[in-house]
């Protein structure tokens, strides 16, 4: 019994110690083997943040039996589209030391975070969709790439044999996701109508238009999953949820929407999903998340993460979908795609670090320094190479870190709910594997929206270089009277789409704006609205007001507002411009080098015995010796070397010759560098650029500035929320009271800038500035674009030709035709003079010590060697004299050194050899005439 009791006691303590260690390991940051990872999440919707923390805890639980490291989650909330706050947060996390950055979700903030991660080699993990196909060294994106999703939608449409359909999209980003459907809509392939959801999200007017004005009963709906419930309800209210209509929902989260009211509506609703709720891994995770206390965090520490009642931040809904927490256990299919991607991202990072199989040292990174993390590149490469099965299926990435290899389930709404009817694999082309043969609904529709053989009336605005009168000696008629970028664009589209056209200038000579009192439009917009013209092709800017009146194709040219100003004048040369080739510190160092070399030359010449000569060669035994390197001669020698003229003074000793040689080498390099840089300064002109940016323009008082008073440029400044733009607008209004700064046309502004001698600047679109700068050498563009917008083709609201034109423009853009046309009409055609390339004084910099520091090092090294040689020469001569005089070598060297540094005259007594006299016993050595050695017998 005693032994059994002892065994039970040991087992109890062992179990208790295991639980204690586990509890400690599960706490944030408790383990010394933990690796911190950071996440940036939306400050409004915290579902992803909760999933991130739960995924970390899940990984840590799985890591304990394997003896692996554990993660510590550090999350920060940022406001949507606040890139500055996101940048500050990621810098703060990197300073504390992290292994990777997750998020954020908005494109603007993510772009800034990615730039920081690339700069400091920090792995950046994204779970949002990104339409850009860009090469980022430290980015990996788990969301299926939009180009791959676009292929899936296109394959589904082809499988359903849809020839005519309506695409209802939320924003312009949706067009990238649907690009394959748009490309395939050009006649004679498919007939497609595009409708954009209004900002108010009241879609009933669009659905009524689809129901009454078209015969199309196929709808592709692209919008956020959180809006699907409301939009489908409006479609049901209008009468679209009948057996006649078929819907393809592009969202991967249709399973998170409550579709209970539409099961028996007979409308065919089909979608893709990437999360399979039938998989055991998904059901396990859903079961764990379903038991989370809604009032506490995943660690049950009492901190408020999910409750709206206390924090007010989160709705009382599941972090997994749109159902209340009480229903989680019965809705295992409610896992949102973005939540699943967060979980997969944590698992992927953990597996990559485990495979890396090395000690990863987490270090603090300061955004103010250039130090980078040495392990970042290895980690991101391992993540790209890792292949694993996650909640969203097989994870496989291309070399750019994007997920282009995916498997999707095709689901359709049945009376029993969403049911899987097929599967799509990105590795196969135009193929969907159906579970049953009868799931396809094939409806043949023979009608198409064909532009072929139709004649369109096209209104345009006469402006260079968009539409201009053709220069010809012969009389021209019809479309031949016009030429320009817009004319060539229209011609290319007509060949592609098969239509004919009649081109005419707008009657009232206006682009189009609404009357402030009546709201009636004028210009090209009015002609398109009234049906006078079918389309408008010109430098017509897309803005919110015009989009409410007419439809626009995708832009065929991107541009922005910029500043037109005169070419900066040349600064007059200064009186001492000859000193510009060298910086001030170089001149100072050269002066010190000059004096230093001269002094060293004097001392070495006095120190070495080989510079002391007999002034009278006829006298074999002179009483004194002469040295040519006096103070004046030494300085003259140094000056002559710099001026490349010589001085008739030649050193004789090896040491002094070495100093001279090094000094000549120094002067050769310095004079050559000076000459070359001086020539550059004389050729390149320094420009007087008083205005370099919008800020400079706003804070100066010399130059007035303005724009076309009735165009989109004026509207931009008038309605801009930015303080600087508001200040510019107020200044222009004040200036216009005394001096007319608002112009009727761009041509007036161009003329005033050219003739204003720097007293006027003009705001206009960057395309017009580029064109005129190429042809008027007095004009220049200041700064970059202030905004971003585009030129597009205008069509009547609801025009069935809109998508065909958009598809044609997209094809021309991909083929490089639009770039060729712009180069033709901006750079080549009608260019009568070629402006000389102006010099930029800022591009020529004085040579500083970093550029010529090596020459100074060589000079100093040569002088040191010369000093050593001088002492060696002194030693050799002193040894010879010491033997003759009967004194030590050291005594001779000391006396010679003292005499050299005393610098008393250019002569010294000659040392004569001793003579032997036999006066009495023995022979004694007596000193000769050597005055400065006579007192030492030694």
Automatic annotation (TrEMBL):
It is a multi-pass membrane protein. Residues 1-17 form the signal peptide. It comes from the Eukaryota. Residues 455-828 form the Ionotropic glutamate receptor C-terminal domain. One of its GO terms (molecular function) is ligand-gated monoatomic ion channel activity. Keywords: Cell membrane, Glycoprotein, Ion channel, Ion transport, Ligand-gated ion channel, Membrane, Postsynaptic cell membrane, Receptor, Signal, Synapse, Transmembrane, Transmembrane helix, Transport. One of its GO terms (cellular component) is postsynaptic membrane. The chain crosses the membrane at residues 582-604, 662-684, 852-872. It is found in: Postsynaptic cell membrane. Belongs to the glutamate-gated ion channel (TC 1.A.10.1) family. This is Glutamate receptor ionotropic, kainate 2.
